[in-house]
Amino acid sequence: MATISLRKANTRLPPEVNRVLYVRNLPFNISSEEMYDIFGKYGAIRQIRIGTNKDSRGTAFVVYEDIYDAKTAVDHLSGFNVANRYLIVLYYQQAKMAKKADQKKKEDEITRLQEKYGISTSKDK
Questions:
Q1: How many other CB atoms sit within 10 Å of the CB of residue 29?
Q2: What are the residues whose beta carbons fall under 8 Å from the beta carbon of 87, sequence distance 6 or more?
Q3: What is the pLDDT of residues 110-119, one digit of tens each?
Q4: Domain coordinates of the chain in residue numbers?
Q5: For residue 18, with 0-12 CB atoms within 10 Å meaning exposed, 13-18 middle and 19 or more buried, which class applies?
């Protein structure tokens, strides 16, 4: 398939390409077997983690054994329709995820301090 031609050409991959994919907009009731069926077509999968709590429902992490398989999956599955939902398949980027988590912590801390000292924002009025 396409992965063989990528390897033979010794193609240089962009820096954001890695083996871990972040998948959004999944149906909430998708099973791990269905995920393996969809993503397994593009190569050997090491692990799939599906979000189960309120904040992570509809998302998953898919880890491939080979980086070229992950690239092929992103190329083919971005925009793929599953149960009338179009998948958003991205390369997992640790730095971006850490920034989002840090931002959420900062917002929570500000809210906590505002409540502690009785400060209201212009939104509250």
A1: 8
A2: 23, 24, 25, 26, 77, 78, 79, 80, 81
A3: 888 888 888 8
A4: 20-93
A5: middle
Tell me the whole-structure pTM to 2 decimals: 0.70
| Cα gap 120→125, rounded to integer Å | 7
3-state helix, strand, coil in the chain (%, to 5): 40, 20, 40
In sequence order, which residues have a C-beta less than 8 Å from that of residue 92 and are 6 or more positions away?
A: 18, 20, 21, 22, 61
CATH architecture of 20-93: 2-Layer Sandwich (3.30)
Matching residue, tokens 């269905």: 34
HSE-CB for 115 with a 13 A CA cutoff: 6
**Segment 5-61, tens digit of pLDDT:** 555 556 787 777 899 999 999 999 999 999 999 999 999 999 999 999 988 899 999
User: Which two tokens mark 1?
Assistant: 């398939």
- For residues 92 and 112, what is the distance between their CA atoms, to the nearest angstrom? 31
